[in-house]
């Protein structure tokens, strides 16, 4: 009797699924990133021109940051590789389009927004 454990593939798949989900929740929401980009555009700055404070807890002392993806990188080479990646290009395209949905939009779509009682006619 030899061979591999039959549950080995299941365990491997379960662990890879957890790591994929973990990275998903560490990002800022799309609407928060979009608001930052709009604020920078109103000031006449681009995403690259922002001075970053030195922070020892972040990768690369917090100096290599992608605003669109809300990620810090260890050095300039890794950041440049990220800028050429498919994930970054999709994110830039998403952020350059129309404004993403917000919680207010979701509430209004679910019927939980502000009530519309019609026009006020006359108060007595």
From TrEMBL:
Keywords: Cytoplasm, Metal-binding, Nucleus, Ribosome biogenesis, Zinc, Zinc-finger. Coiled coil: none annotated. It holds the Pfam family zf-C2H2_jaz. Residues 66-88 form the C2H2-type domain. One of its GO terms (biological process) is ribosome biogenesis. Its main location: cytoplasm. One of its GO terms (molecular function) is zinc ion binding. PROSITE patterns: ZINC_FINGER_C2H2_1. GO terms for cellular component: cytoplasm; nucleus. The keyword Metal-binding applies. It comes from the Eukaryota. InterPro entries: Matrin/U1-like-C_Znf_C2H2, Znf_C2H2_jaz, Znf_C2H2_sf, Znf_C2H2_type. It is found in: Cytoplasm; Nucleus. Belongs to the ZNF593/BUD20 C2H2-type zinc-finger protein family. This is C2H2-type domain-containing protein. It comes from Eleusine coracana subsp. coracana. The gene is gb02321.
